[in-house]
Amino acid sequence: MIKRFVKPYLSHIITWVILLLLPFIGYLYEPKKISDFNFYFVKTHFLNILFIATTFYLNINFMAPKYFFEKRRIKFTVLIFILLAIYIFFNYLTIHFSPVEGYKKIEEQNIFFIRLIIGPTIIFSLCILTSTMLFLYEEQAKQKELNKLIELEKTAAELSMLKLQISPHFLFNTLNNIRWLIRKKSELSEESVMKLSEILRYILYEVEGNKVEFNREMEHLKNFIELQTLRLPIEGTVAFNVDENIHNFQIEPLLFIHFVENAFKYGIDSKNAPDIHFEFKKIVNGILFKSKNKILLKKTMIHNEGIGLTNIQRRLELLYPNKHELNINHTTDYFEVTLKLMLDEN
């Protein structure tokens, strides 16, 4: 507990201790001078360091934060000169009340002005300059952290919005499918409602966190695919293959649903057998998703797929920057998607 409290101030403590002991280092090399030890000098040196330290922390914690910005620098400058005047006056007192020999020696060597004005001004200026620079550095660090926090909150809000945009689109299509089954009075309508219930439970309650288990996402996709295959007008090929070696990844939810929806949207009509394939493979440090479907509704197939594709691309940029590779190809007959994700294993 004490160590954790002291650690942030350790560099400050070491610095002030060094400054306090600096004038006495010479005694280590010339022990004979200890007999001439001047206790008045020790006292004034201690008070000098105390004044400089007080000024340092007064500036970094009060003066600079309150007066350095927002057109208050005149007050900041006035306060600095007031403190400098006090410091010079303090040095005058230390000279004036010093032993007579020391005072006369200073006068005889004509260094009174340097000792009284120049020296204190340099020391005081270094103190103010250092503390102000440290304050500005800390302010910059705080601003960077604030900008990061704002960016994270913005990203989280944007991701939430993107999820909300995906889910109603999915729900709309699925409800249309169920309505189609009910109109046919199909015995499979009850099963489709159950699968929709599972899908909605997943979307509403299980994807609130940042990531989900890969296996759980696969269950969601499987339910969706089975729900879609219930309404196939003509029997065809709908394949969903998942590599058994993929079992220990955490992934962002609802990344693949758009491509699965698209495959059924453009890969089913009332006259032709569908040919739809979904595949998940394990690759080095990640997974590979492939989707391929025969294009049966060519008249409604558009080059720009609208908000769905825009959303998934934006989500990938936000969630997997420099860790994904998305390729979309479509020929006259087939539409193919390949998505590589670099993931961290648990």
TrEMBL record:
<feature type="transmembrane region" description="Helical">
    <location>
        <begin position="76"/>
        <end position="93"/>
    </location>
</feature>
<dbReference type="GO" id="GO:0016301">
    <property type="term" value="F:kinase activity"/>
</dbReference>
<keyword id="KW-0808">Transferase</keyword>
<keyword id="KW-0472">Membrane</keyword>
<feature type="domain" description="Signal transduction histidine kinase internal region">
    <location>
        <begin position="157"/>
        <end position="232"/>
    </location>
</feature>
<protein>
    <submittedName>
        <fullName>Histidine kinase</fullName>
    </submittedName>
</protein>
<feature type="transmembrane region" description="Helical">
    <location>
        <begin position="9"/>
        <end position="29"/>
    </location>
</feature>
<feature type="transmembrane region" description="Helical">
    <location>
        <begin position="113"/>
        <end position="137"/>
    </location>
</feature>
<feature type="transmembrane region" description="Helical">
    <location>
        <begin position="45"/>
        <end position="64"/>
    </location>
</feature>
<dbReference type="InterPro" id="IPR010559">
    <property type="entry name" value="Sig_transdc_His_kin_internal"/>
</dbReference>
<dbReference type="Pfam" id="PF06580">
    <property type="entry name" value="His_kinase"/>
</dbReference>
<keyword id="KW-0418">Kinase</keyword>
<keyword id="KW-0812">Transmembrane</keyword>
<dbReference type="InterPro" id="IPR050640">
    <property type="entry name" value="Bact_2-comp_sensor_kinase"/>
</dbReference>
<keyword id="KW-1133">Transmembrane helix</keyword>
